[in-house]
Amino acid sequence: MWRYVVRRLLAAIGVLIGASFLVFLGMRLVPGDPATAILGSRATPEALAALREELGLNRPFYVQYLIWLGKMVQGDFGTSIALTVPVTKVLIPKFWNTLILGAGALAIAVPIGTVIGVLSGYWQLSLFDRAGQIFALFGASVPQFWLALVLVAVFSLNLGWFPVSGMYDMRGDGGRFDLLRHLVLPAVATSTIPMAVIARLVRASIIEIMHQDYVRTARAKGLRERRVVFGHALRNALPQFINITALQVGFLLSGALFTEVIFSWPGIGQALYNAVVARDVPMVQGAVFVTTLVFVLANLAADMAQAALDPKTRAT
Amino acid sequence: MNASPDHSLSGPRIQPDTAPMALGGRVHQRSLWGQAWRAFRRDRIAVVALVLIVLIAVTAALAPVVSPYPPNQANNRLRLASIGTDGHPLGLDEQGRDILSRIIWGGRVSLPTALLPTAIAAVTSLVLGLAAGFYGGLLSGLIMRTMDVFFAFPVVILAIGIAGILGPSLTNVMLSLTIVLVPYITRIVYAATVEVGGRDYLEAARASGATAARQMFVHILPNVLPPLIVYSTTIAGLMVVYGSGLSFLGLGVQPPTADWGVMSSSGRDVLSVAPHISTIPGIMILVVALSFNLVGDGLRDALDPRSHIR
């Protein structure tokens, strides 16, 4: 187990170093001078010269990267051009907001996706399976920005059940209930792709498990079908379910960007979008890297959880 | 879209060992594709989806001929007019432009935005994955570890980051979608190549002195193409969604050019009075994405002899 953990951890660190290099390279690909890109076109020549010195722009490329990496490891992503505050300071609260949205979306996607997947897999090729497959197909194909607009049109503008945008009501008390009311529509819009993928993957893994020898053995020795399903099949599927769920974080982060923009949810996706529109390079770098960090850590956690629950994974 | 145990991601495995003519190559190959086509034709839903895609693409290509109005011609008196207005079956948008015409013209932008990156990424990945899987060693390590790094970024985040750094334009959106896709498709090709590499018939080919080129093109390629085609078809649907999503965010083609994402975005401000402006383009995106998914599913079943058992 420990050998696996260490190996997986080292791989994740390697990937993150590579990713940080790409993010760094991205800034250098911005047309024109990086110092101007960071300080904006209104910066004084003195400020530009000072920043060039600070970033080591006159020094070799790898030195520049190491300086940048050193700062970033300490949580210093530089200063936002558009907001003139440290990037980290902007991103931390937004990160929590995205986490709330992600948790809301998972709370919808995981139970529904898993139940559909398990039942479709168990009743393979039945009417329920067909319906579940069609549902998953729609979930995987629907443009999330469009679904968000439809939800707003129907449930906010027409029926008035939920607020159009934001996290809290300006006049409200800002309590938990208010947050929940604001969370429903964005969470639904974000949940579609993860839900569809979970349903499909869970179905595939259930079909595989129901054909295993130990399921046949359990049935042959006369266990009740309920015991076979809950005691044997689902128990063995659990590590895979956890892994499947953790792997949805990438989709969540991707989908959250669209819903955050449309619902004015003050999360990291909206921050990235605003930074891209404002061509705020340090902010873009910070937001992309933080999101990537979360994604890599989630995948790492997924593998660890599966390894802890399922000895077979460790052996490979 | 993550690496996962889904069968759709690992792709179909053709089993040439069961075919007596496997070493003959060409003869077997033709019958395989012929069989696949016959199986695909039997899948009515997939055929309907394919016809739909072709129909939409042809209509878009013929836009100058079939479109009832020019895409940017405005009729101020009929601004925001709803579905079913006389002479404008899908209504008019916030600037009084005919929505049907803009949907038809929009296909000329939205479809290539998704399909061109998919095609370019598929070819690039075929080269990278074949090279990595066939030669192994240092080259494989270099290619696949680089892919791992790209994998670390969530898809949309990477695409937006790239488009944001390069600046908003249609070319940059297509470039970013291509970059985002390559690692995913390369993994598929690599896995298929490595799998074939361990088969007895490749061993036999090597032992009988087949050149590297012959091994690659006669023995490996026919086994790599099915999963590549299936995956690329399915992923093309997602690219329609993401490509129009980037345009929706204003990172791609700029208004007033008609594009399904741009059109959906332009109706946002009048959502309460004229919801059809945002909704109709979204339905087009959904229909196209759904169709690509269905064709991909049909191809997978058609190309996978084992699927009849499952």
Structural features, described:
The complex is a heterodimer of chains A (316) and B (310). Chain A has a domain at 92-279: Orthogonal Bundle (MetI-like fold), CATH 1.10.3720. The longest helix of chain A is centred in the first third of the chain and has 36 residues, at 87-122. Chain A is an all-alpha fold. In chain A, helix 5 packs across helix 8 (176-210). The model of chain A has no long low-confidence stretch (mean pLDDT 85). Chain A has 14 helices and no strands. Chain B has a single domain (21-67, 98-308), classed as Orthogonal Bundle (MetI-like fold). Helices cover 69% and strands 0% of the residues of chain B. Chain B has helices at 7-10, 26-42, 44-61, 63-66, 99-135, 137-151, 155-166, 170-197, 200-207, 212-248, 260-266, 276-303. In chain B, helix 7 packs across helix 8 (170-197). Classes of the chains: A mainly alpha (316), B mainly alpha (310). At the A-B interface, helix 1, helix 6, helix 7, helix 8 and helix 10 of A face helix 6, helix 7, helix 10 and helix 12 of B.
Task: Fill in the keyword field for this structure.
A: 316 residues, MetI-like fold, 78% helix, flat, B: 310 residues, mainly alpha, 12 helices, 0% strand
Topology:
The complex is a heterodimer of chains A (316) and B (310).
Chain A: H1 2-29, H2 34-39, H3 45-55, H4 61-73, H5 87-122, H6 127-141, H7 144-158, H8 176-210, H9 213-220, H10 225-246, H11 249-262, H12 268-278, H13 281-309, H14 311-315
Chain B: H1 7-10, H2 26-42, H3 44-61, H4 63-66, H5 99-135, H6 137-151, H7 155-166, H8 170-197, H9 200-207, H10 212-248, H11 260-266, H12 276-303
The CATH architecture of the domain at 92-279 in chain A can be named as Orthogonal Bundle
Counted beta strands of chain B: 0
| Helicity of chain B, as a percent range | 55-70%
Q: Write the CATH homologous superfamily of the domain at 92-279 in chain A.
A: MetI-like
